[in-house]
Amino acid sequence: MTAALTVSLTGVTKRYRGTPALDSVDLSFGAGITGLLGPNGAGKTTFLRIVATVLAPDAGDVRLLGRVPETADRLAEVRRRLGYLPQEMGFPRGFTAFGFVDYMAVLKEWTAHAARHAEVRRVLDLVDLGNVTTKRISALSGGQRRRVALAQALLGEPDLLLLDEPTTGVDPEQRVTLRQVLSRAGERSTVLLSTHQTEDVAALCDRVVVLDAGRVRFDGPVTDLVATAAGRVWLADAPHPAARASWRTGTGRHRNVGEAAPPGAEPAEPTLEDAYLLLLGDRARTTAVAA
Amino acid sequence: MTAVVERRAAPAQATLRTLAWVEARRYARHPVFLLGAGLLVWSSVAISDDLDATFPDFKVAVGFLVGVFGVLVGYQLTRSLSRSTDAVTAAPADGVLRTAALCLACLVPGALGLAWVGWLYATAVLTSTPDSAIGTGDRIAILLAGAVATVGGPLVGVMVGRWTRFPGAGLVAAVLLVLWTGFSSSALEQRASHLTDLARLQAPFAFWTSSGDAHATNWVAGGSPWWHLAYVVLLCGLAATAAMVHEATGGRRTRLWRVLAVLGVLALGCLALAVAGDPTRVPL
Amino acid sequence: MIPQGLDRAVVGGTSALGAVILTACVVLAGDHPPLLFLRLGLVPLAAAAAFVLDDPAAPAVDAVPRTRRRRTADRTVGVALPLGVWATGVGALELRVPATAAAGLLVEGAGALAVGLALAALLRWAGRAEPGEIAASAVGGTMLALLVFDLPSWWPAPVFPGDDGWAASTALWGGLTLTAAVLVALTSADAWRRIPVGRRPAHVPWPSWRRRDPEPGGGGRPSPDWSRSSWASRR
To answer: Which of C9, C54, C140 sits opposite B175 (nearest CB)?
Structure first.
């Protein structure tokens, strides 16, 4: 990678009560959008919190935006160019959408009144909340609140944008809007996107990192991960005993994901989800009607 | 095809019992309750050497450490599920049942309160505390009112937790309770009359003896401790009913309002009877 | 200017309750100051101070460039309201009842508020985004208990003196105020600060930069042995 590295983690470890949430992780990122996938408890949120400088690792080195944030000044420099959307976030009582994002803008050192308000309006328009700026957050839907939280992360067009489950509760139409916002951001910033929605990763990301039990299982282009599932996904009238995972689709046929398609099987185009399942070795057999 | 296990709806009483047991365990493990209980045990050691004729009013220890602290516990237990409101509200056990379970859990501090006043009474008898003008029956009534306070405080906390979402409301309720008691007990410094007895006894926690220094003569105030006990028990019922009213809907809400009204009238009646007695103060 | 993010309803509401109680004390005061009720009015004011640091958006706020110390300083301005209520109440009471030990009461009030704030700061440092409820309950409960019960005879200085003991009490509250201020300052350090391993709880975020290479801006290498020596070598 010839482009400048925005984020560089070397040997980063984080333990909670002896259990490693991250285990000697080495990762580097430059401009572009990287998806972070992994099962629950894989360490995705811990990873993002460390990169967001909200949580410190127990061991290892973290270098952000060309700096090691070892002093308060360097930390502040990094945070000025960073936007972070946590997985879970509350809102202070009584705030409107505009008021809360304005509050965050003040904390991000937007001191000039007019410029700050213009920026707040810009990010709220970006997430399509321009018509509810004066509404109290408590009166907004869950998806709208999530977009308010995303808006504060977009303040100042950060060079490093960290998003933990940004599309939770967001309707499909808004999800498309957010994809547009994030893809534009990814053109000049480093965007790390942690999500369970493989379709978001497939749609947006150049690169995907799969974490499992605190370790990196895969790190590379999305197409490379999908390619690992080639020839291993097939459709059949029934779940196949050799399949790692099998579920009944909306067409009535069963999508089987396994080691190798049996002879005569009708191959299916693999998706990122298939590749992810194969990577993690999911052996659970599910029967569900996929929407 | 997946077999769906059919489950019969559990009777409300069984659910209430189970829920009450769960809440009671939560209460018993609450750090504020444990702290209050620990301080009560510690203070009891000091109290046991200091009993005199005014010993029934030593119930202030259990009334405060278990009752007033219980306001905080009751409030926090009630508000603890506020973040899961949607999931909880969608459950078959409705708000009235859940509130009733919380109210029943307030019997945990009540049991401690009862045990403690029993201990105090037994200690007074065994250590030959000086005879006083307070009859045995009245002494028991005064002490039992202290035990009732250990139930009433948490019930106030539950009621406040149901009716408000204001952070710190539990502490505010505790302060107001102490204020109410303090103002009411200042009536002991006024001349004896039915009016001062009313001012004193309308509080959920009443003192009956003077707290003079060693040179002053202690006395017991007028009024009926037994009717006052009935009054504070009815106040507990009012608090519990008011908490359940908040969660009830439709006909059930109407019925609970009626119960509230009846309890209120009864409480006023008991208060009137408590005050009706001779207001003369009797030296101990 | 009321700092943004402060829960005005809670801080304002509890301060208002304190103001009502203090007003009643001033109006109904006789020859002597009604110290018990005055101090009951201090309880909601101390609770107000405890709620000043609550921030439900802490997961995002912790990643902003404005340091936690600066944000704490901004929020601490909110303590001016309950402190102002207390000072006004004590001042008015002194005018009404000249025997009031106003100086001692002012120090007492400042101390109670400082303790509430310090406890909230400590809980926030331990990872709680909204420490107010617990801090207020702890401080308020303790104050109520101290108002109702006498301290053991072995306790050297009265916490809430009556006719005498003001000098010792003022010294006690002054010390508590200073201690609380130091605690607030220490616990307001940004979580991203190096502290030697072994002197902090596991769940408290510490940076434990591994740097074998003393060159500034160097990448560093992971090492199996994280020890205090690297902290010393950094200074």
So the answer is: C140
